[in-house]
Design brief:
Structural class: alpha+beta
Strand content: 15-25%
Number of strands: 15
InterPro entries: RAI1, RAI1-like_fam
Helix content: 25-40%
Strand order of the largest sheet: 1-8-9-4-6-5-14-15
Family: Belongs to the DXO/Dom3Z family.
Number of helices: 11
Cofactor: a divalent metal cation
GO molecular function: metal ion binding; mRNA 5'-diphosphatase activity; nuclease activity; nucleotide binding; RNA binding
Order of helices and strands: EEEHHEHEEHHEEEEHEHEEHHEEHH
Enzyme class: hydrolase
Amino acid sequence: MQPELHVDPSIYMRKFPRFERPTIIGYIGLENLKYARHVGNRRVHYDLNLHYDKAIHRPADLDVKITELLKFLLEHETRLNFPLETSLRNAKFFCYRGLLTCIACTPYENREPWKIVAILHKGNIYLCARDTEEKISRKMNMTERDKLFTSWGYKFEQYLLSDEPDVEPNPDVPVDENEEFSLVFKTQLNKHTIVFGAEMDGIRCDKTRITKPPTELGPEGIIQYLANKEFIELKTNRHIENGKQENSFRRFKAKKWWCQSFLVGIDKILCGYRDDNGIVEELRICNVGDLPRKSQRFWNSDVCFNFIDDFLVYVKRCLSRKIKHKYGEKALDDLQALPLMTLMFEWTPGMPVHVTENYSHDDDPILLPWFLNNYGKVQKSM
C-alpha cells in the first residue's frame, strides 16, 4: 500500500524552495496573441453583458486534458532536444499551470477536492487533472447566471486587449471564448524540472511602441521576442465594500491570483471592479508581490511552493514503489524500457493525499496514440 501525503500547512512552514524564474521555450496559438494598450488606474464603464447572446461560448462540460501541450512537444521535439532520461531522479514533469496552482493552494483549501493522474512514459511524468464527482455535478447543473458570470471574464479581456499593438480594443463584437494564446515554460523547483503550458492574457504595449512577432525568424526568433515582453494578467472582481468581503478576497482569490502570476513571472495584475449587474466601473493595478504580504493572516507563499515540491517528490516516490514492486530495483534506472505506468492521486479537504492504481489509461486516455507512437522516435534515430 502506498503512503499518504499530509497537507497541514504547519508541515510546510519552511524557507521558500529554490525556484528558477521560468524561461519561455515555446508558444501555442500565436494567432491569438493580444496586446494591452491602456494599463492604469482609472474610472471606466464596461458592460460585460454586451453581445452575450451572440458570443461563442466555451462548452461548460469541456474535458480539459493536456492535448495541446502534447502537440507542442511532438512538433518541437527536435528543437527542444530533451534528453531521454533513464532514472526517476531526472524525470521531467509536464503539465499545465492550472494544475500547479491547484496543488499550491491545497494546504489552505477547504472546499474543492481534486484528482490528478500521473503517467510515466519514456522517462517523463505527465500530470493531468481529472474532474471530481463534485465538479462534474456542478458542470451539469450550471444555471444561466453561472454561465453569465463565466462569460464576463472573457468580455472584460475584450475591452482591454487588441489584436494589433497599435489598434484600439473593440468590444463591440461578440467574444469567441475558445481563442487562446499560451506560453510553454521550463523551470526548476529544487530538484524537479517542470515544463508547463499557461494561457496568457496579453502583452503590455502602453510603455513603449512594439511590433508584432517576427514570424519570418521562426520559433527561436518569436521566443526571443516573447521573452523580452512584459505580460499582464487581467482579472475581474466584485466591488469590495466591507471587511468581510476584503477577508474573503484575501483568503481565496488573492492566493490563486498570486500563484497563477508568480508561476509565469507576471508582476502586475489589472483588476476590473464590477457591480452585480456586470458593469465594470474601476480599473486598478495590483502588484503581484504585494499579495502574500497583505494576505499573510490567511496563507503563506512559502507553504504553497514547499507543498508543490513535496507533492512532486511524493509522485516520484509512489512511482518508484510501483516500479520496484512490478519490475524490480534495476528497472528504476531503465525507465526507457518500461511500459506506460499510471497512478491516480486524490485529495479531499481535511484528509491527506492518497494514491490508487485504479485508474485505467485505456478507458480514459490522456497520452493519445499519435503521441505515444511518435514521441521519442526522433532522438532514437539521430
